[in-house]
Specification:
Layout lengths: L11 H14 L16 E8 L2 E10 L2 E9 L4 E6 L5 E5 L5 E5 L5 E6 L4 E9 L5 E8 L4 E8 L5 E10 L1 E6 L5 E5 L21 E5 L6 E5 L6 E10 L10 E9 L4 H5 L4 E4 L4 E3 L13 E4 L2 E6 L4 E6 L4 E5 L1
Antiparallel strand pairs: 1-2, 2-3, 4-5, 5-6, 6-7, 8-9, 9-10, 10-11, 12-13, 13-14, 14-15, 16-17, 17-18, 18-19, 20-21, 21-22, 22-23
């Protein structure tokens, strides 16, 4: 990197969080808990270049972005995860077949390919003790969701647990070590790839699994079966009466309604307080598509690319504003 430029590594979600904090505050970007101070100069990302798909580090360069470290990957990457030692993991977008560990300087360290009858669903996280990795996967013959348990050092699979649903997407650890998994619930077939089929059979749910054996500890569904639970972020609970450590979980939603008007006005955020799961109302149409979610400055921020902006809610899921 050029001399004198401060390096701050940010994930896409941290970048979204800081942008949301700026949009809501209207003054200057403030560092969120666990994030470095400004200026924002570097962040990890995945993108499509002229030569194919890549992951790497991007740096703010004038009004645009410049790639400072790049690594070619076989297909489009989706979820990125930073490990405790500073290395990064990238996993293929669903239905994907590769998992990669790499360094911020663009050097690949280890790769793993999934079994022929399984597919990665785009997300990976580390266990609380760092010894294992958890990946969301799909059994291609049955369509059922799985959580892959992998050795963190070798990336090799040690076990797999049912996700108790279809199309598991993002997963997060709770403070007690349990796993929360968003089952997107959208049926697909291996021969049709990402094509969505039989949406009348959608079964999206949030599940809590024990981190040692994958035992089902709880399962929650929204009243509207056509809302797919996708990405998640922990936020503080302003009511102080919710789940472990008094936190709320925000979940970005993607609507799959057949009726265009119903889809256009569908909510993009659900909140979970440890006991109940419900949608968050918005006074304007957001095209029924929450791309990702972050929490910053006491607010949930949901990216709404089809509505061309970011929707902001308070820590309990109450509407605040929309930033183009």
């Amino acid at each position: 990197m050029p001399t004198g430029i401060k390096s701050v590594r940010l994930s896409r979600r941290e970048w979204l969080a800081r942008c949301a904090a700026f949009a809501a505050g209207g003054t200057a970007l403030q560092p969120t808990q666990g994030a470095a101070a400004l200026p924002i100069t570097r962040f990890a990302a995945a993108w499509q270049a002229e030569t194919g798909y890549q992951v790497g580090m991007l740096e703010c360069s004038g009004p645009g972005l410049a790639a400072r470290a790049t690594l070619d990957v076989p297909t489009r990457a989706h979820g990125l995860w930073q490990e405790a030692g500073g290395t990064l993991l990238a996993v293929a977008r669903r239905p994907g077949d590769w998992l990669l560990r790499w360094r911020p300087d663009g050097r690949a360290l280890a790769r793993a390919w999934i079994e022929a009858d399984r597919a990665f669903n785009g997300h990976v996280i580390s266990s609380a003790d760092g010894r294992h990795l958890f990946t969301t996967e799909t059994h291609l013959e049955t369509g059922q969701g799985l959580i892959g348990v992998r050795d963190a050092a070798s990336l090799q699979k040690l076990a797999e647990w049912p996700s108790h649903g279809m199309d598991p997407h993002e997963l997060l650890l709770d403070t007690d070590g349990s796993l929360l998994v968003a089952n997107g619930g959208i049926p697909t077939l291996p021969e049709t790839g990402r094509l969505k089929l039989n949406l009348d059979r959608m079964d999206s749910s949030l599940v809590r699994l024990a981190p040692d054996r994958g035992t089902l500890l709880g399962q929650w569904r929204l009243d509207d079966a056509r809302l797919s639970l996708r990405h998640m972020a922990w936020g503080q609970d302003g009511l102080g009466a919710a789940g472990p450590a008094g936190r709320m979980l925000g979940i970005a939603l993607q609507a799959e309604h057949a009726d265009a008007a119903q889809k256009q006005s569908a909510p993009v955020l659900a909140v979970f307080n440890g006991r109940a799961l419900h949608t968050a109302a918005a006074p304007r149409a957001l095209a029924g598509y929450g791309g990702d979610i972050a929490f910053a400055a006491g607010r949930f921020a949901v990216s709404c690319p089809r509505a061309h902006g970011v929707a902001l809610y308070d820590s309990a899921g109450h509407w605040q504003t929309f930033t183009p």
